[in-house]
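We include the pair:
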Amino acid sequence: MGNFGIWQLLIVALIVVLLFGTKKLRGIGSDLGGAVKGFKNAMSDDKQDESKKALENSDKAERSAEKTEQKNKEQA
């Protein structure tokens, strides 16, 4: 049951086209493509946000280390 040949797939594709029509299938395809594109953009935006936060946190850590170092020099 799991082995489908090229002819079986073509028959299924033909039945789908006959049931839904090419215009509706084209619309579904473009909607699906837009959804995938939006998902990829959202994922890349999240990665950029995470890298910006990591950079800000490292900058804050460096500044606090510098302040601590300056205080230690002043106390000595």
